[in-house]
Amino acid sequence: MVKAVVLGAAGGIGQPLSLLLKNNPLVTSLSLYDIVNTPGVAADLSHIATPAKVVGYLPPDDGLKKALAGAEVVVIPAGVPRKPGMTRDDLFKINAGIVRDLATGIATTAPKAFVLVISNPVNSTVPIVAEVFKKHGVFDPKRIFGVTTLDVVRASTFVSEIIGDLSLAPSVTVPVVGGHSGVTIVPLLSQSSHPLPSSISKEDHEALVKRIQFGGDEVVKAKDGAGSATLSMAYAGAEFAVKIIKALKGEKGIVAPTFVNLSADKSGGDALKKEIGKDLDYFSAPVELGPDGVVSIRSLGTLTDNEKELVKAAIPELETNIEKVRETQSKYLLVTLTLLYRAYPSLHRPSSR
Ligand SMILES: NC(=O)c1ccc[n+]([C@@H]2O[C@H](COP(=O)([O-])OP(=O)(O)OC[C@H]3O[C@@H](n4cnc5c(N)ncnc54)[C@H](O)[C@@H]3O)[C@@H](O)[C@H]2O)c1
User: Fold this and answer.
1) Which of 233, 258, 259, when mutated, tests ligand 1's pocket best, judged by the most ligand atoms within 8 Å of its CB?
2) Lining residues, ligand 1, CB within 6 Å
3) What are the Lactate/malate dehydrogenase N-terminal domain coordinates in residue numbering (predicted)?
4) Which terminal residue of the chain has fewer beta carbons within 10 Å of its beta carbon, N or C?
């Protein structure tokens, strides 16, 4: 029995993702939560002849709490998508608040659930979830994941296109590490299960790396104001969620790149920090998954000089994205304290004792 929950289930990603989860026989219960439309989406999906019982919830009557009760896997695609000209970082201001509120719901109702964060910017929203869990005393770094699978999926597709045989796409695997925005996305093409043609020029190789890093922009531009990747993201999100569910059910040897807190596996995380030459708290690396979440954080393996440069270039932006959460928290605390002092000036006075 596996209960999966989608938070933001009525959105562009949420609906097809919920369809793919409903279509998976490993899921026996599927709760859909959003601020709009979930009763309709749930009614529609509930007619599909697969095992999962689907229920839709809205905010009134403790909807979030009811959706999350007993959840094992919670996927979060709630938030605002990117519009042309917006960076993932521009989304931070809006999505940070949405993710913080949903994380509070999970921390208080389903603190043991695996949390799969899709809402962008993933490099910052994952630390936000972690901070909320820490605040509630339920932080377990083994159970919080940033979903970077779309970068992996794009790498498989684009590499098979270059090889000239799209039928290979499902079996091409390329580790993509670092983070989940622009230059923080580092495809390790030298470790592709299917090597690139040896005739590939330096320019074409660079263009391929850029296409994987900025594949999201291709979709944002083509949708011309109607949002960002939804269908490919739903596919990628479901692929990662199913890996998590299989690991939860005891399947061994499942490894996938995902953005995690490096304390999830102390020795693996410390080794990775040495490898990248930076003491970052979060990084996307190949992670072995098990019934309790992260089993081990794997090494990046042997990198080419070019890949070493890409990792180096990723670090400053990653550091800023992660640090941003701390800064926002301090500001948030300052504003809260200021408002409190304004409302209750006596709090400000030193105690007479
Ligand atoms: N990780 C990735 O690779 C990746 C790829 C594409 C998009 N994204 C991100 O996924 C998010 C969703 O994108 P989309 O295209 O589905 O957007 P969308 O606007 O179509 O859907 C978002 C949904 O979230 C809901 N929502 C908003 N606030 C909520 C709240 N407080 N509680 C519950 N639900 C809430 C909205 O009602 C809407 O249904 C965006 O942040 C986007 O940037 C991530």
Assistant:
1) 233
2) 7-8, 10-14, 33-36, 77-82, 91, 95, 98, 101-102, 118-120, 122, 147, 150, 180, 227-230, 233
3) 3-146
4) C
pLDDT given at position 256:
98
47 is catalytic: no
In a domain, 15, yes or no: no
Q: Is 286 contained in some domain?
A: yes
Residue 257 lies in a domain: yes
Name the nearest CA neighbour of 78 among 64, 66, 89. 64
Residue 280 is classified by DSSP as -
Total domain count, the chain? 1
Statement: residue 342 has pLDDT above 90 = no
Phi, psi (5° rounding) for residue 17?
A: -65, -40
Query: What is the per-residue pLDDT across 259-285, written as a single tens digit (0 to 9) for each?
Result: 999 999 999 999 999 999 999 999 999
Give the Å distances, CA to CA, from 136 to 99, 108, 112, 207. Answer: 15, 7, 12, 45
Q: What is the pLDDT of residues 97-126, one digit of tens each?
A: 999 999 999 999 999 999 999 999 999 999
User: pTM, whole model, 2 decimals?
Assistant: 0.93
What residues are paired with 307 via a beta bridge? none
Residue 344 has pLDDT above 70, yes or no: no
How many CB atoms are closer than 10 A to CB 52? 23
For residue 38, tell me if it sits in a domain: no
- What distance lies between CA 187 and its chain's CA centroid? 17
Q: What are phi and psi of 243, to 5 degrees?
A: -60, -45
